[in-house]
Design brief:
Elements: E1 3-7, E2 10-13, E3 18-25, E4 33-39, E5 46-51, E6 58-60, E7 68-73, E8 78-83, E9 92-99, E10 110-111, E11 115-120
Parallel strand pairs: 2-11
Antiparallel strand pairs: 1-3, 3-8, 4-5, 4-9, 5-6, 7-8, 9-10, 9-11
Length: 121
């Protein structure tokens, strides 16, 4: 199985930036598509970005397109989410996920524990 640990969350002012990291262990992520999802209080979990196993393809939710960038370093077994121009509505717990099915996937096989991102106005 794949164990995922997110880091890099925190408190930031609107307009600021954060870079989230997802360190994987147990198996290489070279053969997994990866994703970032978030869940705000009282809201359903929402996929915000996905990346193919090779890192050559990405998708983004409309709400974050142009502001967030997902990347994948297979050598480091790590996935990143660069978040720029953050808005208060980006406040949520952000989760990393791995999917062995065809990219993009809607039902990941593994989830991390999440990291809190809070954007103040």
């Amino acid at each position: 199985q794949v164990h995922l640990v997110e880091s890099g969350g925190g408190l930031v002012q609107a307009g600021g930036s954060l870079r989230l990291s997802c360190a994987a262990s147990g198996r290489t992520i070279r053969n997994y598509a990866m994703a970032w999802a978030r869940q705000a209080p009282g809201k359903e979990r929402e996929f915000v970005a996905t990346i193919s196993w090779s890192g050559g393809g990405t998708t983004y939710a409309d709400s974050v397109k142009g502001r967030f960038t997902i990347s994948k370093d297979n050598a480091k077994n790590t996935v990143y989410l660069q978040m720029n121009s953050l808005k208060p509505e980006d406040t949520a717990v952000y989760y990393c996920a791995a999917c062995s099915a065809h990219w993009p996937c809607s039902s990941p096989d593994y989830w991390g524990q999440g990291t809190q991102v809070t954007v103040s106005s």
